[in-house]
Amino acid sequence: MASLLKKLAGQTAVYGLSGMIGRFLNYLLVPLHTAQFVPAQYGVVSDVYALAAFGAVLLTWGLETGFFRFTNKQDVNPEKVTKTVLGFMLYSGLLFTALLLFFTQPIADALLYPNNPEYIIWMGFALIFDATAAIPLARLRLLNKPVRFAAIQLLSISVNISLNVLFIGFIIPGEETGNTGYLTQLLYNPEIGVGYIFIANMIASGVKLLFTLPAYSKASLLLDKKLLKELFIYSTPLMLAGFAGMINEILDRRLIRIILQPVLGEEGALAQVGIYGAVYKLSIIITLFIQAFRYAAEPLFFSQSLKSDAKKSYVLITKWFMIVVAFVFLLIMLYIDFFKHFIAQSTYHEGLHIVPILLTANIFLGLSYNLSVWYKLTGKTHYGAYLAVFGAAITIALNFLLVPSMGYTGSAYATLAAYGGICIASYLLGQKYYPVSYNLKSMSAYLSGAWLVYLVSTVIPVTGFMKYSINTLLFITFAVVSFWSERHTISKLLTKKHTDES
Questions:
Q1: Are 211 and 152 a contacting pair, CB within 8 Å?
Q2: pTM
Q3: Cα dihedral angle (366, 452, 280, 297), rounded to 10 degrees?
Q4: How do residues 454-466 score in pLDDT, each as one tens digit?
Q5: Other CB atoms closer than 10 Å to residue 483's CB: what's the count?
Q6: How far apart are CA 164 and CA 194, in angstroms?
Q7: What is the largest CA-CA distance in the chain?
Q8: Coil/strand/helix, residue 475
Q9: How confident is the model at residue 304 (pLDDT cuts 50, 70, 90)?
């Protein structure tokens, strides 16, 4: 059991190079973006990326998890699965490229960007490139090649960051960035504006595709229809679940605009979206950890499923997940006065009060990924779709109920309610179809303990250096108590390490 936890931690760390570290570097672009663009302009970025997230789910067809599932089935040839899925993704990419090129303007009109169809082209190609690269990257995870996986992802991210710095730091003129030099005169087009961010993304996604294209040498142009049908029976509910999941995760940006635009006008509504989107970035550290955890844990969950102590493994993994995210929650909230400076303009800081709400919501999101093992292993993936639709209904209903009176704060509470509801419902259903004795008491103690420490820090009437000192003391106290509570598990890990080295 200890070796399993070490393996998961090791692979999570490697995947974190592309997930946690890579996206954290993207996170460092927030000061650049918020320095150059006012909330209404940054609202366009948040809105377009919200729309793109739905396209990303659609274009991969939910086949990543299906690929893992069928390559681990004893009665299926893994090589045939690889050839079939790659072949289908090749055809799918060509189809979506044709649709994008022929229907650019109608799509732009429907998405409320009639005067900027170029946004649709740039982000559309970025999505197609990413989707085409998705299965080759999943194959690297399946083959336990996290270093190559991380290298490709990091290269793409590095290109994106470099181009953002070039375009926004040296080309776009502005008082904050002070760009008036030769590159500005040579390359700047005022009609592109925030579109430079989308262009950078498109090029970076193209680089990722370039380095994954060799995997398509294994693609079969003659698809196995029977196998493809079985894959879709398994994967389509997951795609629907992912689509509904995007409603929970991303739709609030669009709903804020739709609900508030009749009242505040387009610029005012986009400003609300911009503030919400920028402040949401402060919860990104937990999101990054969750992403890296998923990359490592999903193949591991399937590989462990045939072992007699599989459920004990899931219990251990889930508890340690909760411990880590509790620490991340405290790290952000106890030092929020530091992290807020990543958002350059103080205009955005009015939204800081929603950060603990969003962090807690994302903790429930990560916990629901752990709990989802029951329907993925039992083949009842349609329940994943039901759960996501349940959460989506909460998201939509509460946004329409709360946003008119509370603005983006209502969206934050809607996100918390949706993820919390999904998490509770998934646990209850899991206990019926694939019961796992999760340590609910311990996990609840870590989350509530983190909140208690944070609330204590808010009522201590000090500022400046003294505040940081007291918050650091609180953080250390929480760490000591946690270490003492888990001393037996930690002792086993250290003993196992000493045995392995001997």
A1: yes
A2: 0.74
A3: -20
A4: 999 999 888 888 8
A5: 10
A6: 10
A7: 70
A8: helix
A9: low
CB atoms within 10 A of CB 90: 17
Please classify residue 334 by burial: count the beta carbons closer than 10 Å to its beta carbon, then call 0-12 exposed, 13-18 middle and 19+ buried.
buried
Cα distances (Å, whole numbers) of residue 332 to 49, 285, 445, 479: 24, 8, 19, 15
pLDDT reading at 8 higher than 50 = yes
Q: How many CB atoms lie within 10 A of CB 437?
A: 10
What are the tens digits of pLDDT across the range 379-392? Answer: 787 888 788 889 98
| Rounded CA separation 244/141 (Å) | 25
In terms of Cβ atoms closer than 10 Å to its own Cβ (0-12, 13-18, 19+), residue 114 is exposed
d(CA 388, CA 386): 6
pLDDT digits (tens, 9 = 90+) for 72-111: 665 667 788 888 888 899 999 999 999 999 999 999 998 8
With residue 190 as reference, give the H or E element that holds it: none
The token pair at 399 is 């946004």
For residues 464, 469, 471, 472, the Cα torsion angle rounded to the nearest 10 degrees is: 140
pLDDT exceeds cutoff 70 at 22: no
d(CA 90, CA 347): 45
Q: What is the DSSP letter of 103?
A: S
Three-state secondary structure string covering 116-153: CHHHHHHHHHHHHHHHHHHHHHHHHHHCCCHHHHHHHH
